[in-house]
Amino acid sequence: MTQGSYGQFCPVAMAAEVLCTRWTPLVLRELMAGSTRFNDLRRGVPTCHVVFGEATAILAGDALLTHGLGVFAAYPAGERFAEAKVRVLATVVEAIGTQGMIGESAEVVADFTGRGRVRYGGELWNARSDAALHAGDLARIVRVEGLTLWVEPR
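RE: above sequence
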């Protein structure tokens, strides 16, 4: 490998990056919710579904997710790590799913009661709440329904 190449890093660290907010969720969220700024651009770069189409974006998100989980399942090599790898995979799968969002904080974008928007993980999400929330407040995510976060005052 060439010095400074991406391959110089630990495979598990690379898998964590693939699964974190940088790649897999980004591809799928931009596809499902649409771009929220820059007219189908993300940080000045066209989103995956704009460049390659929705079908390819879905496959890319699935491939990234599968690849990341596969790396966690493969490293470290050896039978003696089997139980630990199963625990790591279970933890990662729970954390990257909607259950990983429960209890987290989201910032209220504008005053709302009932329906509004919150910012979570650097992205705007539709939100629902039975309580009045004010711009700048932190709200606790209590439930996820599709692309809508149910929140309550923190």
